Each structure stands twice: as C-alpha cells, then as structure tokens.
Amino acid sequence: MLIADFFGYAAAVCTTIAYIPQAVKVYRSRHTKDISIGMFLIITFGILFWIFYGFMINSIPIIIANVITIVLSGYILIMKIKLDYINVRKKFSKV
C-alpha cells in the first residue's frame, strides 16, 4: 500500500501545481483570450466532483489536493469570465 500511497500523493501534487503557472500568468498579464472557457468550466466541475468523492471515501489527500486545485482553477475561470466581459464592453463602447 505504501507504493500506491506514494503515487497517489505524487499525482495530487503534480495535478495541483500544474495550475499555478497559468494562474500566475493570468494574474500578471490580465489576459485570458487563449483560454477555453468550456474546458475550464468542465474541469472546475470535475474537480468539485473529486472533492465530493474524497469526502464520500474519507480521503484527506484527495480532498486537500482538489480544494487547492479548485481555488486555482476557479480563479482562472472567474478571471476568464471577468476579462472577456470587460473586453466585450470595450469593443461595443467604441462602436
């Protein structure tokens, strides 16, 4: 079981930190044009389902990793929606 736990923790760390570069890039550039809103909607709901699953099977690693991941994914998703809305408003105010 120790080897399985190692791979579980390693997967949790990798999939969680994978969102950090994108979140930092969005924060610094305030640019989300090339991000797919559909993908981030689906992935955010998937992460939410992982959290529910973690509670159902009482798995602290799954819960912790996915709570951190949903914060990062949620930030990117919110910024995508917010920045797209601002850009649409700017586009139509010029008309």
Question: What's this entry about, in short?
Answer:
By secondary structure, this protein is mainly α.
Blueprint of the fold:
Blueprint lengths: L1 H16 L2 H10 L7 H21 L2 H34 L2
Helix pairs in contact: 1-4, 2-4, 3-4
Question: Can you describe what's shown?
Answer:
The chain is mainly α. The chain has a single domain, classed as Monooxygenase (Up-down Bundle), CATH 1.20.1280. Helix content is 85%, strand content 0%. The chain is built from 4 helices and no strands. α1 runs parallel beside α4, α2 packs parallel to α4 and α3 runs antiparallel to α4 (60-93). The radius of gyration is 16 Å and the shape is elongated. The chain starts with a helix and ends with a helix. The model has no long low-confidence stretch (mean pLDDT 89).
Tell me, briefly, the overall form. elongated
Name the helix and strand elements from N-terminus to C-terminus, one letter apiece.
HHHH
Distance between the termini: 63 Å
CATH class: Mainly Alpha
Low-confidence stretches: none
Instruction: Tell me which CATH architecture applies here.
Output: Up-down Bundle
Compute the gyration radius: what is it? 16 Å
- Strand-pairing-aware structural class: mainly alpha
Major pleated sheet: none
CATH topology: Monooxygenase
Number of strands: 0
Count of domains = 1
List keywords for this structure.
95 residues; mainly alpha; Monooxygenase; 4 helices; 85% helix; 0% strand
